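Kindly inspect this one:
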Amino acid sequence: MLNRRSSGPRRGSRTFGAVLSALGLLGLSLASAQPAAAATPLAPLDASTYTLTAGDFNGRWAAINALEATGRVTSFPDEPALSRVLDGNGHTGRAGLCHTSNLDPSYGANGFCWNTTDDTSDVWTPQGFTGSHDAQPGGTWNGKHVYIASWHNPDNTKARITVVDNSSPAGPPVYNHILLVDPYGSGTTANFRAVGDPTSGARPFPGAHADGISWYGNKLFVATGHQIQVYDLRHLWKMDNSSSAVGVVGGKAHAANQNWALPMIGIYSNAAAGAPCSDTSPATPCLTSLSLDRNGTDSLVTSEFAAKGGRPVVRWPLNATDGLLETDGANNYTGRVTANAAYRVPVWKVQGAATDGTYYYFSGECPEYAGTTDSDVPYCIHRAKPGEAPHVVTQAPPLTQNLSWAPSSGRLWGLNERANHTSGKRVVFSLDPPA
């Protein structure tokens, strides 16, 4: 199965040491091969300066409860709703790395691809990646290897997730798309709209640039800039796919021609949706990538894109009992979340960050392509221990986005967003990093 540790040889100290020795004979080092900005260490920051504020869980739950109680949406309260999506039906992807990945083959790289429509789409762009290795310590969900990707559309008025069943050792993955929606109102007037719909009212406006994503128990977290949105997979709704409308219209629930919709239950934010990210606002970093860290206190990990690096990677504590971020409020629906660790990242153009408990891994610009505007060149996966300078582990697919560490298998997962409207260039990959 694709998320198991490779049975082939790991690249160990002998091979990696030989590379270092060769560089030493040439008077070079991995650090000296970096741009000047990346020769600096992954430096600790004052985590107490980074906070998030919980927003309108109660109002969204009121709308969800009303819609389900009145039967205006089809829900599955007595069973794991996700099992309906993982019934073996849906879109069929392609097994294996069907495009050039640039990954070092000695790290046991493998993965899968989307079907041609999703591979070449300019309507939907993949960004974030998570899986059952995040959701459950054992690495599977109901005995299946399940993965979830987040996608945004060009004008950021809609967002979706894709749930992938990749349990077959040799067969292609099967997946389904689910529209992310925002519930509102109460009683018989309760309804829902697309996340990103500008008519969302006075509550914190939910951004729809779905970027990072993490799955923790029954909760799904989606980073959209200055927000971490929260969804509950126990409240998955079956839709009538005959209309492009979103919401209950004429007695039928629609989700822009999708078969499924997932309602948001709340938001944690550090600024208004759509607010610009700026190096002059160090206490309000953009929350672009998202991953899960189960080492010590379970935490979400966010990072921010910056052309020449220098922005933080931040850990936000989770509450293992309710699956929400830990706040200082009476419950985790209210109050503020304070980060429990933060580091300044010197890697340029970081798109994703994850940690195995020892190293932080970053998808970012390769040193040899520093400053390029060519979106077809490889990206690189860098890694560093806190206090040490990052080094490149391997090249990776063009415009590699979010990363996800699978502790159950010891593998690093990721995906890229680069599209080619003729042949496609998008892959989902995993690799076994060097010891």
